[in-house]
């Protein structure tokens, strides 16, 4: 950062102007309509505002196609290119991008504008998807996942733009439109993904070519239709803009969250907690978070974690809520399809059909939630019901067994779909309406980064729990099933190894093996995986219970609607 003694008089004036802009903007009432650049002076919705929202939701749809593609097709992708022990990293890396880059991007958008960040990152994601579709190794797939995830760093902007261009009273419907696009994109993606890989293990490649075209179209629509007037901050000189950015906080966020998630991701995948691969990045992450907390609380109160965001309790509670919402979503996105195919023997397309019920339920509930919040000006009841729905879903899935009818799974998914819609819409609205107008972009960035962090941390926790449960029980369950059937002792180890790798050719070559022994060993393996899935859902239920308490107690979230415009 340039020191004051090295700055020219022009730069000093620019910095003073920046401080004046920030200072004066703190006096803007939170009921101010931010979208006056696109909405009509009378507060009516214009065609430009509608087209802008459509353009934004198209890009957001790409994010859902990508996260569902990586989660639903992860096992298929790694079975095609290798690296099955790194399947979870496909989703972890994608989720790291908005977690680490989201808050800095949201503040940068205040000074350089939102439009070009959305457009450029959409085009970068398009290139990343093309590279990913041509991957021939897990290393290439993981590397291109970072590039393909570039657009997800602008999730906060995509939530902020509809609220920017629409009058205040329509903001619940603006968030409804964004969330609806996610549901529609997810449904389309599940059907496309399931159909493409049903008979062809390499069918995931055209899926990501398709995703590249979605990002191209979305970025182009934003380029054409989103035409905001320059903000006052955008007129500042480059040195003034850099001086106004909270660069120390940005650096600490990148270091802390990146190392923390890497450490969690490596835990029991494949390293134990005491291994340096887990312990070193985890410790660095925790120390960096401590440093970030000290810096934001005591040193820079109007930086990236501006204290004005926390003048009411709603913003902090909304952060906790979206953290849990993302954690619940990632459990379903990453494990449900795998469970359907492995435990219940369903094909990819059928698994996608069952999974899609989540989004049908989410779409219907999102519409009802948007109507309810707009009509009653209340956000707490939907948030409360959301975590009840999450808890019901996780309890039902934790108690499901291999004998549970597949038809039950269709009904179970209604609850998780309801929970996703009941939580995200009111929590984002509560946070935005409780945020000063000048901090909508920064606040939404922190909120979406918190949501992405929930997915990253949740997946790392679930993956460590899942892998440790499988490792602890796989061999014992298989041995308990096959030893009574008379498999020669010398054949036990190669049989267990071949079955764990799900290699049919090696199984057939094991001396003394019979179809009955293979079937018994398979049932033992499924029992071990069933325990692993159950532990994932039990953990999800515990997080849901904690989130339920945060919205149930009267000291917490309240309705932020006032002076509606």
SS-derived structural category: mainly alpha
Query: What is the top-level CATH class?
Result: Mainly Alpha
SSE run:
HHHHHHHHHHHHHHHHHHHH
User: What fraction of the residues are assigned to beta strands by DSSP?
Assistant: under 5%
Oligomer: single chain
Largest sheet: none
Q: What percent of the residues sit in helical stretches (DSSP H or I)?
A: over 70%
Number of individual domains: 1
Architecture (CATH level 2) name: Up-down Bundle
The poorly predicted ranges are 1-42
Instruction: Name the average pLDDT.
Output: 81
Q: What do we call the CATH homologous superfamily?
A: MFS general substrate transporter like domains
Question: Could you give the count of β-strands?
Answer: 0
Output the number of helix runs. Answer: 20
Question: Any idea of the CATH topology?
Answer: Growth Hormone, Chain: A
Compute the separation of the termini in Å.
Answer: 40 Å
Q: What is the general shape?
A: globular
* Rg from Cα: 25 Å
List the helices and strands and how they pair.
Elements: H1 9-25, H2 47-72, H3 74-81, H4 87-112, H5 115-133, H6 138-148, H7 155-165, H8 171-197, H9 204-225, H10 238-244, H11 247-266, H12 276-299, H13 314-342, H14 348-376, H15 380-399, H16 406-433, H17 440-482, H18 489-500, H19 504-509, H20 515-552
Helix pairs in contact: 1-10, 2-3, 2-7, 2-8, 2-9, 2-13, 3-4, 4-6, 4-11, 4-17, 5-6, 5-9, 7-8, 7-17, 8-14, 8-16, 11-12, 11-17, 13-14, 13-16, 13-17, 13-20, 14-16, 15-16, 15-20, 17-20
């Amino acid at each position: 950062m340039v020191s004051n003694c090295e700055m020219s008089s022009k730069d000093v004036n620019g910095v003073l102007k920046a401080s004046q802009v920030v200072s004066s903007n703190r006096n803007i009432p939170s009921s101010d309509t931010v979208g006056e650049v696109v909405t009509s002076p009378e507060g009516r919705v214009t065609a430009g505002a509608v087209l802008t929202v459509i353009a934004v939701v198209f890009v957001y749809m790409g994010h859902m196609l990508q996260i569902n593609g990586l989660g639903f097709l992860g096992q298929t992708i790694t079975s095609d290119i290798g690296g099955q022990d790194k399947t979870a990293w496909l989703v972890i890396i994608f989720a790291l991008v908005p977690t680490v880059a989201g808050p800095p991007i949201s503040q940068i958008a205040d000074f350089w504008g939102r439009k070009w960040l959305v457009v450029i990152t959409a085009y970068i994601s398009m290139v990343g998807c093309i590279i990913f579709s041509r991957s021939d190794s897990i290393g290439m797939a993981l590397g291109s996942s970072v590039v393909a995830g570039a657009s997800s760093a602008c999730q906060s902007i995509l939530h902020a733009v509809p609220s920017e261009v629409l009058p205040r009273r329509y903001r619940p419907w603006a968030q409804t439109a964004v969330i609806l696009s996610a549901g529609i994109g997810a449904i389309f993606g599940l059907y496309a993904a399931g159909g493409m890989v049903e008979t062809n293990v390499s069918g995931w490649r055209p899926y990501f070519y398709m995703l590249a075209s979605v990002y191209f179209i979305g970025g182009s629509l934003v380029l054409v239709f989103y035409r905001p007037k320059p903000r006052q901050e955008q007129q500042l000189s480059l040195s003034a803009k850099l001086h106004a950015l909270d660069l120390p906080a940005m650096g600490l966020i990148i270091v802390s969250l990146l190392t923390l998630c890497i450490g969690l991701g490596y835990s029991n995948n494949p390293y134990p907690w005491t291994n340096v691969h887990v312990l070193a990045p985890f410790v660095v992450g925790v120390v960096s978070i401590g440093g970030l907390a000290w810096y934001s609380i005591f040193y820079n109160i109007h930086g990236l974690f501006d204290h004005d965001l926390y003048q009411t309790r709603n913003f902090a509670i909304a952060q906790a809520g979206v953290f849990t919402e993302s954690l619940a979503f990632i459990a379903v996105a990453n494990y449900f399809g795998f469970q359907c195919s492995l435990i219940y023997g369903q094909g990819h397309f059928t698994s996608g059909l069952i999974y899609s019920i989540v989004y049908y339920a989410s779409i219907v509930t999102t519409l009802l939630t948007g109507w309810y919040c707009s009509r009653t000006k209340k956000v707490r009841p939907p948030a409360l019901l959301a975590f009840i729905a999450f808890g019901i879903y996780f309890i039902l899935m934790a108690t499901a067994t291999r004998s549970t009818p597949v038809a039950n799974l269709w009904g179970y998914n209604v609850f998780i779909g309801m929970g996703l819609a009941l939580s995200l819409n009111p929590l984002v609205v509560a946070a935005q309406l409780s945020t000063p107008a000048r901090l909508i972009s920064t606040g939404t960035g922190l909120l979406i980064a918190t949501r992405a962090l929930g997915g990253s941390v949740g997946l790392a926790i679930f993956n460590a729990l899942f892998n440790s449960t499988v490792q602890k029980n796989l061999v014992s369950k298989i041995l308990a099933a096959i030893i009574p059937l008379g498999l020669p002792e010398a054949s036990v180890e190669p049989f267990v190894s071949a079955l764990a790798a799900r290699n049919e050719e090696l199984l057939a070559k094991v001396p003394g093996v019979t179809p009955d022994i293979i079937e018994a060993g398979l049932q033992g393996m499924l029992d071990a995986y069933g325990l692993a899935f159950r532990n994932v859902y039990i953990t999800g239920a515990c997080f849901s219970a904690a989130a339920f308490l945060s919205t149930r107690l009267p000291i917490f979230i309240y309705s932020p609607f006032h002076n509606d415009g």
